[in-house]
Structure formats: C-alpha cells, structure tokens
Amino acid sequence: MNAIIENMKTRRSIRGYKPDRMPARELIEQVIEAGTYAPTGRGMQSPVIVAVTNKAVRDRLSKLNAEVLGTTSDPFYGAPVVLVVLADRNRPTYLYDGSLVMGNLMNAAHAVGLGSCWIHRAKEVFNSPEGKELLKEWGIEGDYEGIGHCVLGYPADENAPAAKPRKPDYTVWVE
C-alpha cells in the first residue's frame, strides 16, 4: 500500500503525552512545513500557524482552553507543543483552509513519529480579551479566528489505539 495512505490510516488522536519530552525542533518544523502545504481557497494561504514550545505560554493557552471547557484539567493532555491554527475571516474559505492545515499537521506528526490531537475551542479562546491580547503579543494583526490547537508530543503510551471499524455506509456510490 502507498506509504502516505498507510500513514493516514494508522494515525490516531493521542490523549496522553510525555510532558517533559520535547520533540526536536527539526521534527516540529517538518510538521509545520507540511501544514503550510495544505490546500487553501484560491491558493490564498489564509491560515497562520503559531508554534508554542514555551511552557509558560503553553500553560496559559491550556488554562484559557480549560476555562472555555469549564474545567481545571489540562485539555492538551500534557503535550509540550501546541500549534495554534488561525485563519483570516476575510477569506470566504477560511474555516476550510484552517481545517485542512490541521489535517496536514496531524498526518505529518504521525509520519515523523509524534502523537497529535486536534483540540477545539480555539475560536472561543481567541475571541476572548486575553486571547486577543496574545495575538497582539505575537504580532498577529487582522481579523483572525482560532480554528484549532494541534497538540504534539511523544505519546505516553507507545501503543496507539486501534482504528474503529469504518461504518458500512461511509461511501455512497453513484454510478
């Protein structure tokens, strides 16, 4: 089977990480580069990827996300890296563009031996006053919406969960 398709079929959302084992910058850069090659409407590249490896900032993002969720636990499952995907609301395809970036990030993470998971609530986090302040601190100007947090790291459990069987009516053929 094609290696890329096999990678897509074996990727899983990882919900437990070794928090003190930071992936090498080279691996993170490879994942990010794959994200930048996601298709975007009219090739306009509306998304922005913010790579967070600073523990204090990562923990601040986790706290903001947890507040939206209504919990005090870490919604990032201990992952040491957070790739925030934002997209320019002025592009009519921004939500799809950012979602495709998230997919590329997760597939690339698996390809280089890292675990990943899409964590929601980026929209709410970056619509908040504190989230808007973070964007300002990061030099991101414009009308950006948070699409997702792609958390990365080394899985706490080396055995990835098995794939659930595909539902029988996943595909409808019209011939």
Describe this structure in words.
- This protein has 175 residues and is α+β, with helices and mostly antiparallel strands.
- It has six helices and four strands.
- It has helices spanning 3-10, 25-36, 55-69, 94-111, 122-127, 129-137; strands at 47-52, 81-88, 115-119, 144-153.
- The chain has a four-stranded antiparallel β-sheet with strand order 1-2-4-3.
- Helix 2 (25-36) packs antiparallel against helix 4 (94-111).
- The two termini are 26 Å apart.
Q: How helix-rich are the residues, as a percent range?
A: 25-40%
Q: What is the global morphology?
A: globular
Number of strands: 4
Strand content: 15-25%
Low-confidence stretches: none
Describe the oligomeric state of these chains in a short phrase.
single chain
Query: Measured on Cα atoms, how large is the radius of gyration?
Result: 16 Å
List keywords for this structure.
globular, alpha+beta, 4 strands
List the helices and strands and how they pair.
Blueprint: H1 3-10, H2 25-36, E1 47-52, H3 55-69, E2 81-88, H4 94-111, E3 115-119, H5 122-127, H6 129-137, E4 144-153
Antiparallel strand pairs: 1-2, 2-4, 3-4
Helix pairs in contact: 2-4
Briefly characterize the structure:
The chain has 175 residues and is an alpha+beta fold. It is built from six helices and four strands, in the order ααβαβαβααβ. Helix 2 runs antiparallel to helix 4.
